[in-house]
Amino acid sequence: MTTSTPLECWIRPVGCTNTIIKMMYDFHGVEIPKDIAGAMMCAILSDTVIFKSPTCTTADIKCVEALAEIAGIEDYKALGMEMFEVKSAVAGTPIRDLVKRDYKDFDMHGNKVGIGQLELIDLSLVDDMKEALQADIATIKAEGDYHSVLLVLTDIMKEGSEVLVVSDSDDLTEKAYGKASVDGKVWIDGIMSRKKQVVPPLQDSLA
């Protein structure tokens, strides 16, 4: 792409793109419509896991507070919980759809790694599905010639994650997170963010 004039680019270390969009509205002095403000607020609450994610910043929180006022939402945290209750509705959803709901591929020092994540209000919602979920990530690994495939089951109330893993390295999670997996599963306290907490140590361990 070529342009005759320099491009304007807004990049900020915040938890959600909509926080930047709110800043852009403010910068240009444009009033945010009530319905748009509500949608933006919900996006920030979702991306920051109602401010529990380590990616959340004070800017995200301030933007939610301002957007809630515009949208006329008194208890935005309660609304956030309602959103995650809906996101946690997994019954009847095909296993592959759950694995791929929020899934990304990575090249880690020449190793192909796939990482999916499900954010739930209670991991008991998938207790009956874990065997099928593990079988499916094993299938994805075989079909895609991956080094490793992980599915991060995040409990937003307990603020931690159970990681399901299939890998060419038996000690993958022990090297990356200091905790060995047992039967392809390991619980890790405090893990909420794939971007900030799952990927970096995993990439370092495969260097």
SSE inventory with pairings:
Blueprint: H1 17-28, H2 34-47, H3 58-71, H4 76-87, H5 95-100, E1 103-108, E2 111-120, H6 130-144, E3 148-155, E4 160-167, H7 172-177, E5 185-189, H8 194-205
Parallel strand pairs: 2-3
Antiparallel strand pairs: 1-2, 3-4, 4-5
Question: Quick one: how many beta strands?
Answer: 5
Spatial order of the strands in the main sheet?
1-2-3-4-5
The end-to-end distance, rounded to whole angstroms, is 34 Å
What's the story with the biggest beta sheet?
A: 5 strands, mixed
CATH superfamily of the largest domain, by name, is DHHA2 domain
Order of helices and strands: HHHHHEEHEEHEH
Q: Regarding CATH, which class of the largest domain?
A: Alpha Beta
Query: How much strand?
Result: 15-25%
The CATH architecture assignment of the largest domain turns out to be Roll
Q: Give the integer mean of the pLDDT values.
A: 96
The total tally of domains equals: 2
Number of helices: 8
Would you identify the regions where 5 or more consecutive residues have pLDDT less than 50?
A: none
* Radius of gyration from the alpha-carbon trace, in angstroms: 19 Å
What structural class is derived from the secondary structure elements? alpha+beta
Estimate the global geometry from the Cα principal axes. globular
CATH fold-level assignment of the largest domain: Diaminopimelate Epimerase, Chain A, domain 1
- Secondary structure: helix percent: 40-55%
